[in-house]
Amino acid sequence: MKKYLSLLLLVPMLTACGQADGSVLKGLVIEEQTYSEQTAEQFGIPPEKVWSPLNFDHVIAKWFPYMGYEDYMLGKSAEEFRSAVHELYSGAKAEGVNTLYLHVHPCGDAYYRSEIFPRGVCLDGGYDPLEIMLEEAHSLGLSVHAWINPLRCQTEEQMAVLPDSFTVKKWADDPGCDIAVLVNGRWYLDPAYTETDELLTACVAEIIKGYDVDGIHIDDYFYPTADISFDAREFAESGASDLAQWRMSNCTRMVKTLRDTVKACDSRLQFGISPQGSINGNYSSQYADVRLWCGTPGYCDYIVPQIYFGFNNESCPFAETLSLWEDMTSDEVKLIIGLAAYKLGKPDKWAGTAGESEWVDFPDIIERQISLVEASSAEGYALYE
Q1: Three-state SS across 225-268?
Q2: What is the reported pTM?
């Protein structure tokens, strides 16, 4: 499978983060380095780009997902886009937000200058949206974490029209290649392959080299299905006997690789993970070993469980779920609680009889959840609207 990875693209990006010996390609072993002007030169970062990342001890964050780009990026000029994001970020700051999670790599694409991935479908202008987003956010004193979805790629229709030069396109077009797998009309990368790790390493390195981001943020798109057919051949060839444990080890290797890549580029940057809020769901459906990641230093700097549940949710009531995350998160990992502001005023059909109407009946539910978070050991919260 190695023949599919474009070394001409990958090696320069890894070298730019101090990996000239190709250690990532050989074994994905990355040494953490301390950032300075001397190491900036080693990383290929011009001296004028040396800056101090902005991060906060107490985090009030907000996600800005790619779905909104259709409203304020698609068909817009650079000036119109800048005006729109300035208004959005100014509004967030007025609400007390100090950290933004900005979607830059949502579906195997790029909302930034990239030599590795195709432009996002909403980016039809000649400008660099991430550059503008960073300028506007930093001018307001806001921290920016580049939000990537590691494994989710294009839909079947989108992939069909991509140029053949893109690595994932080559994987998708090759019937003998299982690195990219089609699931319910969308392509996903298989974390069982080190080629996946290598491509994601290049993605993170490209972003950090090119932009003054304050961190890298991934969310809960790990395994897209529990179906055994997704990776049956790789599992059979692995020699492992427990499919769930094997899949968890694949995700953990990927997470560790991403974190180590961030730290190799600049040890001051933060790396965070936002898994689903249901602890059991992380294991049963996505094979995300969240107990390990948040309970052991070296996998992430912060974790943002999406506790998108009301107090009366019959499966995962908010207060009890928050307590579980508090208990299993190490003191060395910052716990930030993801809150579902988007549910306000809507029935929650998955919450059970007791909780179905809670988001309609109690418009102060987010305020009460924030109060409980502030009284807990968590170090902030993040809003998804």
Answers
A1: CCCHHHHHHHHHHHCCCCHHHHHHHHHHHHHHHHHHHHHHHCCC
A2: 0.90
